[in-house]
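Recap slide: Interleukin-17 receptor C, sequence and predicted structure.
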Amino acid sequence: MPVPWFLLSLALGRNPVVLSLERVVGPQDTARCSPGLSCHLWDGDVLCLPGSLVSAPGPVLVPTRLQTELVLRCHEETDCDLCVRVAVHLAVQGYWEDPEDEEKFRRAADPELEEPRNASLQAHIVLSFQAYPTAHCVLLEVQVPAALVQPGQSVGSVVFDCFEAALGAEVQIWSYTQPRYQKELNLTQQLPALPWLNVSADGEDVRLVLDVSEEQRFGLSLYWNQVQGPIKPWWHSNLTGPQTITLNHTDLVPCLCIQVWPLEPDSVRTSICPFREDPRAHRNLWRAARLQLLPPLGWRLDAPCSLPAEATLCWQPLDGGPCLSLVPPLPRENVTVNKVLEFPLLKGHPNVCVQVSTWEKLQLQECLWADSLGPRKDDMLLVETRGPQDNGSLCALEPSGCTPLLSRASTRAARLGEQLLQDVQSGQCLQLWDNDLGALWACPMDKYIHQRWALVWLACLLLAAVLFLLLLLKMSRVKGWLRLLKENIRAGAAAGSRAALLLYSADDASFERLVGSLASALCQLPLRVAVDLWSRRDLSAQGALAWFHAQRRQTLQEGGVVVLLFSPGAVALCREWLQDATSAPRAHDPHDAFAASLSCVLPDFLQGRAPGRYVGAYFDKLLPADAVPALFRSVPVFSLPSQLPDFLGTLQGSAAPRPRRLAERAEQVSRALQPALDSCFRPPGAPGTGRGMGPEAGDRT
């Protein structure tokens, strides 16, 4: 097919050496030899059949090297085809087996003889040329004079003009002798393509840049070049002038090819497939592949390109887990895309699935139950293996392997081995596959599951009757057990909650009652609250300072927090301790833990160890906000009950609930504190202002 001259100029570039390609005039092929040799080109094509290797009877002429050159075969001045010239370099190979034969050959070629004979070495050289989709072979006859015959020496070359090929084509050339004395030579060459078609990356996308003149009209086609089946067009358009076309990276597949040609009569079409090795294209191909199951026993893999994959059948158990391969006994099959294939089964089963995988990993899986056979069943798949003397064996396919039915394994199939064997013999199992080597059986397991559950229910009823009888006979003891169980549950809940040590100054009975109400409310959060109000017995036995030291150490070791409740009395004690060391503090109640604790609390604040360990609080109706000494404001100080949500959230730390739940708990604590707060503001002598502290003031140790 003639190629316009301007296209060849574009393809071969502007290099003067390239543009000075030799021109071959005329349509006929020719052959010529190097000096000293004679050659002849046989007319017509020959069969491209190398034949088998044979032993050389003596010295023979064989090709040793192939060399190519691009030339132009021109019919007119501007109407030329790109052509490949091939030079075959020849050498003599082998030796005479009989010295007498060599001597006769030498005498025949001796020029001093009165009548020398024209002795020569002759060879038939085949050149095979392939450029998809065409193939072409020629036969060259070459003769070498006896004087040039030296074993192992090169004798010259023969040149063939020429094999026509298209721009951008990949050509393969072979050379061998007839008969063939050695392995054929081969050479692969990529011919230049049209440079005005350029494929480049644009981020994740791909750009096709066609750089031609504004007047040039050309066709552009994108197609899927499928090995299995015909070319499948995807997009086609006739364009004019320079164009830039952007392809989405998700459209790339390995077999996506680009074809470009000028819109002129008999124009050459240039095709390239640039995405064969692109990892993105291979990922997109598997994403586009679809595995379809076609009733009753057919399946098809739809994909735009051929896939190097294998298909196998597997068995998917009802309880999930991996799909168990049925290879062997069933064989693997190479996948042919876009073609309906049949299962090698007698009957379908909802637990049978198709897997498509490469050598790297499983790519696709589809099960029959997803289509028309209903949900999966709790069936056991039995594999029957048949021997040469009709002696067979049965095993059950399980995740751990194929378990023989009559074995002592601890699996479900081994426990029910005899029953499953009877089911196969009695025809209760469905035969899925059968041949001379074995068979596959699907045996229902529902009846065995029902029997097992019946025994479980019977055992439960018997146990419930025994427990009811014990309850009737030993009701009092059962009550004691329930009481202990309840206490253990409470103790466990308390052990999982955060500890809080409450320190306060016992200003009067009403304030102590308010502290007791706060401590009781905090216990419901839950928090494990320690307060001297509930530990009078330990306080008397150990002393206030020792009791505080023990409680503080335990609270901080458990990640708890020490709460300082400020009142007018507490503020006065703090200021007294903060005075000059020369003034001696006054005597205090020996049971006052707050006064005793200041000797340890103040150093923590003075040395910066308080944050994270201490929290301050005061009742906004009993103490103004600015009355709390500045030293104690290095830790959070909350006003109660107005800042109860923040106070409770700080006490509970990481275990604090969500804001909505925290607000509900703060409301509960506020309601619990309200009666005690009201009693603190009643006039002196009014009912309810006595010294008694109620149930919370008792000794809880």
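The mean pLDDT is 79.
The CA atoms of residues 84 and 618 lie 102 Å apart.
(End of recap.)
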